[in-house]
């Protein structure tokens, strides 16, 4: 043995078993149990270094020598070094090691016998084949573990991906902002021209201006709602909040309000504006921004009905010139600058604040009050003259970026193509799933209502056969719909839970890895945790299905009952029956061992509130709480057992114990994941 | 006698025996409520409109129960049948969905 160990050391491999070294050195009078005695020769020095290098080096050696499989079991003991240093010479260690080797030998004999019986080879060959097979099995096991570990890394190592999502959101938001800007510029230009040409009067202009303003703000807010990264981007959040508040004010000002004449010197003409929310806004929010339009408002009433002609569609699809009036105005340029102020206020800031993707372009509508000496009509010339638009692409709606690496639109597109598309796809997928679910719920509700009516119709003993058949058909269809709905719902919840579980496991993995714990030991433990999570998901699924089914059937029964209640005769009977068929006990006793399900006619001391107020929910807190609380449990368990080095790398420990190759009862005393 | 299932066994049978207590209580409450609703409808199905009118005219609750037992002798069995049916439906639903999602 000494010779063997010495050879390993002389070959530069200093990672032999520390316990072996310890005993060898002790026999040779080299170092003592504490490993502190100085070496007496170069050979001893190597041994001592080997000892000091300890388990980390040993583990590497084992990984490169899978044929030493019986020792690999100890590879998980990296973090138990202290324990082993204190105990590795005691009887328990020796017994354990003997069992380990015995287990390996036993396993070899079993496999060898199997090979020999199947392949008719001699015992020596069979034994050799058995060793190779065991080694290969072990290697496969290790490879699978590494692969699984890598997959977890790949799936959850998403800091970069999160950043990519953020960038993608900003780019998409900017792109859509540019579309809004283009549209607004176009509208602005048309409006200015219409006013300039006398096609519309000032009041019409004002009303339309405020309509555009309203929709622009709304679309910006929608962008913020759609892209949280955009809404929360540095510097924009404040603007976003202000836009939200302004929109709320505008919307509150028209939707539910009684139509009262605004305080206006213009009398009836101004009153007509109240019919249109945006026209009303022209007096409220419009006055706040101090635009020329507000000044004109005080001098000139809005034309009746003008604003109401301008709808969402109008903003999305600009009207032609034939739709405007005939009055002219010299203030067209000023009005154009009013609209462009929207961009001044919100969009130009964004251009400076967003750092990626297409930046904003003030475009044709970017006429400023300071330019009143040279009123702009939103033309390309104006854009080119505008120093604020330096570096921006006026004809394309703005595709250049502040990012020096994104100088052209092509650069932006290329960059976006490089971003992980799957996230936008996932978002779309999620949205689609939500819409599908809502659609299913609507269909289900409709089917339920129809079925309830059919139920009542066919209930009469005088009901025709056709009606009974119609009910039966509808009932069958309804059942199918419930199946589909619950199946989709359960699947959706399962996927969401799986995502959370995987994330939790990955976090645990990373934390433990960062703490320097042995990767294979962690893998072993996390595998059990994944299995437990799968069991829990299936349990949650069963709950969702049972609870959801009960909910749907309750809803149907209540629909029928409500249908029947429309008849006084039935209404009274239902009331009486409901009073008679009461619960036989308090709900607190529901789960008592001897409890039988509900019996009629047993008055209860206090009515149990049994009607669920909410639709079926799989108790969303519970799984996460379980995971959270389990994390500490896991740590405790790991601290107690995971570092012991026992069986952690045992590729043969199956659930039923069969095939455990090493003869050691290495099951943890309390595995939380097995619960 | 009624052959009502034990609630614990019922939950096990429908595959939610390992749920936490709160969830189990919630499900049992739903099941019992649904059973009650179904029972009311089933009783109404068994009665003619004339009988329903007669039933409505009985003021005393005890007499109402006795009257129902007279008109619907199988009433106690209807209750246990409802629970059995519910259990079967839930299990069948679960199996069907699980099969579809394999």
C-alpha Rg of chain A, in Å?
39 Å
Question: Over all CA atoms, what is the radius of gyration of chain B?
Answer: 17 Å
Indicate the low-confidence ranges of chain B by residue numbers.
Answer: none
Q: Regions of chain A with pLDDT < 50 over 5+ consecutive residues?
A: 1-40, 50-56, 65-90, 255-340, 342-407, 419-423, 583-595, 599-675
What spatial form of chain A do the alpha-carbon principal axes imply? flat
Going by helix content, strand content and strand pairing, the class of chain B is mainly alpha
The largest sheet of chain B, given as strand count, sense and whether it forms a barrel, is: none
Q: Helicity level of chain A, as a percent range?
A: 55-70%
| Residue share in β-strands of chain A | under 5%
Order of helices and strands of chain A: HHHHHHHHHHHHHHHHHHHHHHHH
* Largest interface, C-beta closer than 8 angstroms, per-chain residues: A-B, 54 and 60 residues
Order of helices and strands of chain B: HHHHH
Distance between the termini of chain B: 42 Å
N-to-C CA distance of chain A: 45 Å
Tell me the number of helical segments of chain A per DSSP (H or I, 4 or more residues long): 24
Number of strands of chain B: 0
Core attributes:
heterodimer; A: 675 residues; mainly alpha; 3 domains; 24 helices; 65% helix; flat; B: 102 residues; 5 helices; elongated
Describe this structure in words.
- The complex is a heterodimer of chains A (675) and B (102).
- Chain A has 675 residues and is mostly helical.
- Chain A folds into 3 domains: 2-154, no CATH class; 163-418, no CATH class; 422-580 and 612-630, no CATH class.
- Chain A has 24 helices and no strands.
- Chain A has helices spanning 2-10, 18-28, 42-64, 69-72, 81-87, 91-119, 123-156, 159-196, 202-226, 228-231, 236-254, 268-273, 277-281, 285-288, 292-299, 312-316, 332-353, 380-385, 409-418, 421-459, 465-514, 519-565, 568-580, 621-642.
- The longest helix of chain A has 50 residues, at 465-514.
- The radius of gyration of chain A is 39 Å and the shape is flat.
- Chain A starts with a helix and ends in a 33-residue tail after the last helix.
- Residues 1-40, 50-56, 65-90, 255-340, 342-407, 419-423, 583-595 and 599-675 of chain A have low confidence and may be disordered.
- With 102 residues, chain B is mainly α.
- Chain B has a domain at 7-47 and 73-100.
- Chain B has helices at residues 7-13, 21-46, 49-56, 61-71, 75-100.
- In chain B, helix 2 packs across helix 5.
- Chain B is elongated, with a radius of gyration of 17 Å.
- At the A-B interface, helix 21, helix 22 and helix 23 of A face helix 1, helix 2, helix 3, helix 4 and helix 5 of B.
């Amino acid at each position: 043995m000494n010779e063997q160990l010495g050879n390993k050391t002389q070959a530069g491999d200093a990672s032999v078993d520390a316990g072996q070294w310890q005993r060898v050195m002790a026999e040779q009078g080299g170092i003592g149990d504490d490993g502190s005695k100085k070496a007496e020769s170069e050979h001893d020095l190597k041994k001592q270094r080997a000892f000091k290098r300890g388990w980390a080096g040993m583990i590497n050696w084992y990984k490169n020598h899978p044929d030493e499989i019986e020792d690999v079991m100890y590879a998980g003991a990296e973090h138990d070094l202290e324990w082993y240093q204190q105990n590795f010479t005691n009887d328990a260690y020796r017994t354990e090691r003997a069992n380990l080797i015995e287990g390996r030998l036993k396993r070899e004999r079993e496999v060898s016998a199997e090979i020999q019986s199947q392949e008719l080879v001699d015992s020596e060959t069979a034994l050799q084949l058995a060793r190779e097979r065991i080694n290969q099995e072990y290697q496969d096991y290790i490879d699978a573990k590494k692969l699984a570990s890598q997959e977890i890394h790949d799936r959850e190592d998403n800091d970069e991906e999160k950043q990519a999502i953020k960038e993608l959101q900003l780019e998409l938001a900017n792109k859509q902002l540019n579309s809004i800007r283009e549209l607004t510029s176009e509208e602005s230009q048309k409006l200015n021209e219409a006013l300039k040409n006398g096609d519309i009067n000032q009041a019409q202009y004002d009303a339309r201006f405020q309509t555009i303003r309203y929709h622009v703000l709304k679309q910006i807010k929608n962008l913020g709602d759609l892209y949280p990264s955009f809404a929360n981007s540095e510097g924009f959040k404040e603007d976003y909040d202000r836009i939200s508040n302004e929109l709320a004010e505008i919307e509150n000002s028209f939707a539910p309000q009684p139509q009262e004449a605004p305080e206006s010197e213009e009398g009836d003409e101004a009153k007509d504006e109240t019919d249109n929310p945006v026209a009303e806004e022209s007096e409220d929010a419009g006055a706040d921004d101090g635009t020329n339009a507000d000044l004109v408002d005080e001098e000139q009433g809005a034309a009746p009905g003008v604003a109401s002609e301008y709808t969402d569609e109008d903003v999305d699809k600009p009207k032609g010139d034939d739709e405007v009036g005939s009055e002219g105005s010299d203030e067209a340029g000023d009005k154009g600058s009013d609209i462009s102020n929207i961009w001044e206020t919100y969009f130009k800031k964004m251009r400076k604040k967003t750092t990626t993707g297409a930046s904003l372009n003030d475009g044709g509508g970017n006429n400023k009050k300071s330019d009143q000496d040279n009123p702009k009509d939103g033309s390309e010339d104006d854009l080119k003259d505008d120093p604020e638009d330096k570096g921006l692409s006026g004809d394309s709606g703005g595709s250049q970026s502040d990012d020096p690496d994104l100088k052209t639109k092509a650069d932006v597109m290329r960059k976006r193509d490089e971003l992980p598309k799957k996230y936008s796809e996932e978002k779309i997928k999620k949205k689609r799933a939500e819409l599908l679910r809502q659609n299913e719920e609507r269909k289900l509700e409709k089917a339920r209502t129809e079925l309830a009516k059919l139920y009542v119709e066919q209930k009469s003993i005088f009901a025709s056969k056709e009606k009974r058949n119609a009910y039966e058909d509808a009932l069958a269809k309804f059942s199918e719909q419930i199946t589909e709905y619950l199946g989709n719902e359960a699947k959706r919840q399962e996927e969401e839970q799986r995502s959370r579980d995987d994330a939790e496991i990955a976090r645990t993995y990373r934390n433990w890895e960062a703490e320097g714990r042995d990767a294979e030991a962690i893998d072993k433990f996390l595998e059990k945790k994944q299995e437990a999570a799968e069991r829990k998901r299936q349990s949650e699924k069963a709950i969702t299905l049972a609870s959801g089914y009960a909910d749907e059937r309750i809803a149907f029964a209540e629909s029928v009952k409500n249908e029947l209640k429309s008849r006084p005769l039935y209404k009274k009977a239902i009331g009486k029956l409901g009073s008679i068929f009461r619960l036989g006990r308090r709900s607190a006793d529901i789960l008592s061992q001897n409890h039988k399900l509900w019996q009629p006619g047993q008055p209860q001391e206090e009515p149990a509130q049994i009607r669920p107020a909410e639709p079926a929910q799989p108790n969303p807190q519970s799984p996460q709480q379980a995971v959270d609380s389990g994390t500490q449990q896991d740590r405790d368990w790991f601290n107690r057992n995971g570092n012991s080095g026992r069986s952690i790398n045992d590729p043969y420990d199956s659930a039923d114990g069969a095939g455990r190759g090493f003869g050691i009862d290495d099951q943890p005393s309390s595995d939380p994941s097995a619960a | 006698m009624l052959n009502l299932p034990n609630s614990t066994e019922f939950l096990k049978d429908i595959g939610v025996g390992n749920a936490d207590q709160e969830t189990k209580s919630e499900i049992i409450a739903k099941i019992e409520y649904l059973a009650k609703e179904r029972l009311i409808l089933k009783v109404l199905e068994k009665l003619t409109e004339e009988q329903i009118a007669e039933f409505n005219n009985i003021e005393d609750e005890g007499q109402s129960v006795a009257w129902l037992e007279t008109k619907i002798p199988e009433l106690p069995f209807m209750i246990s049948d409802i629970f059995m049916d519910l259990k079967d439906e839930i299990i069948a639903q679960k199996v069907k969905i699980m099969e579809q999602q394999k």
